[in-house]
Design a protein that fits this description.
The complex is a heterodimer. Chain A has 14 helices and 2 strands; from the N terminus they run ααααββαααααααααα. Chain A is an all-alpha fold. Chain A has a domain of 230 residues: Orthogonal Bundle (MetI-like fold). In chain A, strand 1 and strand 2 form a beta hairpin. Chain A is elongated and about 75 Å long. The N terminus and C terminus of chain A are likely disordered. Chain B has an 8-stranded mixed β-sheet with strand order 6-7-8-3-9-10-12-11, sandwiched between helices. A 4-stranded antiparallel β-sheet of chain B has the order 2-1-4-5, covered by helices on one side. The longest helix of chain B is centred in the middle third of the chain and has 15 residues. Chain B is globular, with a radius of gyration of 21 Å. Classes of the chains: A mainly alpha, B alpha/beta. At the A-B interface, helix 1, helix 9 and helix 10 of A face helix 2, helix 4, helix 7, helix 8 and helix 9 of B.
Chain lengths: 341, 341
């Protein structure tokens, strides 16, 4: 009896066109040359290749890198009495008053002029990058560390865990971002870490909400079911399969948010709620110099303002570049399209 | 003792449209090394049954009753640790769409190695080597370099081989293949069935879920026909195709197009599968059955011996002794160019 009962039932049969056995036993051949030619590549490298093509984003990244370098090398850095970074690009101590008469206009000795206390504005703007940049990066980083796990767990576990976390997010969302930050600073007081804490407390909610939504959709994918079917644990699946596939929009959001956070820190500084008065933070410098606009000493406010403007603009350019680089639809995958070059 | 024994399995989905009885009192068993085909229309409960075997059903689906014994051990009571070992370690699963069953952010080698790590003591290099060996086992040419590539660099057929390799990582005794060839063209399908055939030769039991009767005919030892969540016919493969006992099976067989057919239209089984939230009373097939009588609307026939020699059962009142069913089922299978006794 034939193995396949239907074999005997067909009335037309092509004979002599190769034997069935030969066709069946033919070894599997590699599928296509395209597969073999494609170099091994991964998401990060592909993303970077796309990012590099975006000139505005690259320019933004260069400006940010330059500002970061200037901030780092503005004054020597000491750790526990040991000088780890001896370079001092800033000609004067940013905190030292009376290095020159007050309100000197920009000159060769003082490129950005001096402020009411006779402090060198150029040195202060360079040094102030340390505060603004580190506040932006640290506050966003901590907010990610809080928001991403909470959002991921909420989306993956669901049920009352989801309800609890997301209702908390909803409550926090009901407050305007800056008002809540102001309230927190007003309650807990001023200082670098308290400012960062306030910005984290209001910043993590957007990541949590974003990650949760992505996780909900990624959890439905077949590869998550496949991972469960090979016996992987839930924690493992969440860490290894769900979050990596849900993280791209969060990275974009976080990059753009660095600018927002720097602006917020500056706004808090301007309102006198940021760091201690007199600190060379850009927002505080604007605040301290706001009376001078009337008097015509424009350099006291324009240069810190320009620094904020330049940094936030650059961050936004980079954020747009990152979004385009990570967006799978923006520039369709060269492995799948005929237009592949 | 059979490798897998399913008894009175009852799966319900609690949806807004009502309670859907996706699997209703399903019983079957599977011996070591046996190949069972599960066929039926879309919505017959084939995939739900497959998922239930590993307790992989998600809300709103729930297993409401019955028992699933693997090697004598109850799956439904198994603690989570044991269940995770069963998944992949004892029962491997191959999914319908290989492109979505692989995680796009990891190399295929890494994904197979992950399954290896879950089920063996191998870590690091050893797990990777085992993954490459598995990829070679499933017929992927040049497995060492293919292992470093990403899923999007694989064609459908090759990706499905990777999914099979993942399922084999824990050295299971049973492979559940849920429509493994549906998305593949016929030549790749033939290659993949060859691979499964080859694997099944090593004492691996296979439960092949399919709606393709041709695939089932060529591959399986026994066949289970499902309709509306119930098993309606169970037979060795040759008996089923040469002497179908249930009108539904006969309808399915008559709907297969053949070369040289002189029919103007393909025969179909009239009507559609019933809404499982409110199945018809009596025999679930009676609204579509050309042989239905009054008794069919009242009594749901159990799987009964169909009077055939051997292990051939059908759920039709025609085979229930005390049923009030008169008409004979006068369909038969005509075999051209071959006389059968």
């Amino acid at each position: 009896m034939p193995r396949n009962p239907l074999d005997g039932r067909g009335r037309l049969r092509v004979r002599g066109f190769g034997s069935d056995e030969a066709a069946a036993d033919a070894p599997a051949t590699p599928d296509s040359e395209a597969d073999a030619d494609a170099p091994p590549t991964d998401r990060v490298r592909r993303g970077w290749a796309r990012f590099r093509r975006d000139r505005a984003a690259v320019a933004g990244l260069a400006i940010i890198a330059l500002m970061a370098l200037l901030a780092v090398f503005a004054r020597p850095i000491e750790v526990g009495g040991v000088v780890v970074q001896p370079v001092a690009l800033a000609p004067y101590d940013p905190g030292a008053s009376g290095v020159a008469p007050a309100y000197l206009p920009p000159s060769f000795a003082h490129p950005f002029g001096t402020d009411w206390a006779g402090r060198d504005v150029f040195s202060r703007v360079l040094y102030g990058g340390r505060y603004s940049l580190s506040i932006g990066v640290i506050a966003v980083g901590i907010a990610l560390l809080v928001g991403v796990p909470l959002g991921a767990v909420a989306g993956y576990v669901g049920g009352w865990v989801d309800e609890t976390i997301m209702r908390l997010v909803d409550v926090l969302y009901a407050f305007p971002f800056l008002v809540l930050a102001i309230a927190l600073v007003a309650v807990f007081g001023q200082g670098f870490w308290k400012l960062v804490g306030a910005l984290v407390a209001v910043g993590w909610i957007s990541y949590a909400r974003l990650v949760r939504g992505e996780v909900l959709s990624v959890s439905e994918r077949d590869y998550v079911l496949a991972a469960r079917a090979v016996g992987a644990s839930d924690g493992h699946i969440l860490r290894r399969h769900v979050v990596p596939n849900a993280i791209a929009p969060v990275i974009v959001q976080a990059t753009l948010n660095v600018g927002t956070v720097v602006l917020s820190a500056a706004a808090l500084g301007f309102l006198g709620l940021g760091l201690e008065p007199g600190t060379a933070e850009w927002g505080s410098m604007l605040s301290a110099g706001r009376d001078t606009l009337v008097g015509g000493e424009w350099w006291v406010t324009v240069f810190p303002g320009l620094a904020i403007f330049l940094f936030v603009l650059s961050i936004n350019l980079v954020g747009d570049g990152v979004r385009d680089a990570l967006d799978p639809d923006a520039d369709t995958d060269r492995f799948r399209t005929r237009e592949a070059r | 003792m059979a490798l897998l024994e399913v008894e009175n399995l009852d799966v319900r989905f609690y949806t807004e449209g009502g309670v859907v009885q996706a699997v209703d009192g399903l019983s079957y068993s599977l011996e070591r090394g046996e190949r069972l085909g599960v066929v039926g229309e879309s919505g017959a409960g084939k995939t739900v049954t497959a998922l239930a075997l590993l307790d992989l059903l998600d809300d709103p689906g729930r297993i409401e009753g019955g028992s699933i014994r693997f090697d004598g051990e109850e799956v439904l009571d198994a603690p989570p640790e044991r269940l995770r070992h069963l998944r992949g370690g004892e029962i491997g699963m191959v999914f319908q769409d290989p492109e979505t069953a692989l995680n796009p952010v990891y190399t295929v080698g890494e994904q197979v190695a992950e399954a290896v790590r879950v089920h063996t003591d191998r870590v690091g290099e050893a797990a990777h080597d085992r993954a490459v060996a598995l990829l070679e086992r499933v017929g992927i040419p040049d497995p060492a370099s293919r292992a470093t590539q990403y899923p999007h660099e694989f064609s459908g057929g090759m990706a499905q081989r990777v999914v099979v390799a993942m399922a084999l990582a824990g050295d299971p005794a049973l492979l559940i293949a849920d429509e493994p060839t549906t998305g593949l063209d016929v030549t790749i399908e033939a290659q993949l069935l060859d691979l499964l055939d080859d694997l099944a030769a090593d004492d691996l039991a296979v439960q092949l879920v399919s709606h393709d009767l041709g695939v089932v005919a060529g591959f399986c030892d026994r066949v289970l026909v499902m309709y509306a969540g119930q098993a309606i016919e169970r037979a060795p493969v040759d008996d089923l195709f040469y002497e179908p006992k249930h009108p539904y099976t006969a309808g399915l067989l008559s709907a297969i197009p053949r070369l040289g057919d002189d029919r103007d239209r393909l025969a179909t089984v009239p009507g559609t599968t019933p809404d499982l939230a409110s199945p018809p009373p009596g025999c679930r097939f009676h609204p579509r059955c050309p042989y239905a009588e009054a008794a069919c609307t009242k009594r749901d026939p159990p799987l009964a011996d169909s009077g055939d020699t051997g292990d051939h059962q059908a759920a039709c009142l025609a085979y229930v002794d005390d049923a009030d069913f008169d008409g004979p089922l006068d369909f038969y299978v005509e075999v051209d160019g071959e006389e059968r006794p």
